[in-house]
Structure formats: C-alpha cells, structure tokens
Model the fold of this input.
Amino acid sequence: MHTELLLKTAAEIFESQLEARFVVPLISRETREYFERVQYRLKLDALPMKLLYGHANDALRAADVGIVASGTAT
Done:
C-alpha cells in the first residue's frame, strides 16, 4: 500500500545523498512483482536497490535508517 510513497522518498534521498543504497525486504513473489511494476511505472528502476525475500530483521540491522510501515517495525 505504501510502495509509491516509499519509492518517491527513496528517490528524494538519493537525489541529495548519491552514496545512498536501499535494501527492500519483500514477503512474497507477488509483492516483489507489484513493487517492481510500481518502480517501473514511476521510472525509478535505476535506483540502487537490492530486493530481498524476507530478511526484514537483517535489513533493518544493516541499515543506518529504516523506513517502515506501521506494523512492519514490530
């Protein structure tokens, strides 16, 4: 539900911090396909992103900053 907002936020961060890299843990193939469709539609497929299946805890531990939806962080 927050894919578009998260991608636009990542694009703004990247504009001001070109060294930024993004890790996106997704729960299923369907959520990954949806995420990629939105990313393509917004023409943000060049953002330096690593998409993962699961591994949300690992991604948050490795991150300097995390952007999560309510419930995800728990």
About this structure: The chain has three helices and two strands. The first helix runs from residue 3 to 16.
